[in-house]
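Supplementary notes for students who missed Thursday's class. We covered one full example, reproduced here. Read the sequence, then the structure, then the short commentary at the end.
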Amino acid sequence: MTTGLKINTALDLADGSSWVISAEDKISRRIATILSNTMQLNFATRLNGQRLVTLKNGSSLSTNPTSISFSPRLYSTNDNNHPLVCQVSRPGDNDELAIQLMKLSLIFCGLVEARGGVLIHGALAEKNGHGVILAGHGDAGKTTASRRLPLPWKSLSDDCTLIVQDGEGSYRAHPWPTWSTFMYGGLGGSWDVQYSVPLQAIFVLKQNPADHAEPLGQGRAVCMLNETAGQAWYPLANDLNDQERKAMSLQRFSNICELTKKIPAYLLHISRTGAFWEEIDTVLTPVN
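Structure (token representation):
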């Protein structure tokens, strides 16, 4: 990272997506620095086939039509030769900062979903080189479950996971930041978003006195995962018009349908004190 006049960092994902994030004014440099540190991005000296994403302070933007407002419209074009210009502003507090960071990260998620990926409201955990997602709504217990996992399990994220398709059509999972940790006086955190693991299974959490995993049929899995994925996009709800919202929803639904053809999904009944990971191990035994 640099404190000079310009900041360039690179974001590379397992589906071949690659961007350079550039910031040139004081406000955008601050936001780019926090974004890059949080996502553990590497310094980039120049473009090497990546798409350029430029952050600019809104007050410095002209009425030039190539400057795009800070909204999901940023990824409405798939032309990699056309740079994206993201309008940012000086955050009044950490809550406003978290919202801007979250929306910026969702721009990349939107571009990934256009390539068949899915952003899931779920925690990512790794064991023996394979990943599983613990999905669910806000109070399903994803964070608590992540913290309870014993070695050799490793928690990679506790709130969101970005699923991508690699060049061979297989699914890999990237940890995604918990942006809410910057809010309400929080100190934030750091996630290696460029690290990915082969996705082995998805478990939708449900509180229950006894731990038990049951297979979900594809139809039921699609409905449940579509709901959790929609929750991950809630911060942009007011930024979308009806047409954009419909297009994104249809794309996401189609992607989840394809995902569940290859990745098994289960309903994981989870108790407060039980060894729920043993239920996961039982399901995954053929691979592990």
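Commentary. Helices lie at 26-39, 94-113, 142-148, 218-232, 242-262, 276-284. The chain has six helices and 14 strands. If anything here is unclear, bring it to office hours.
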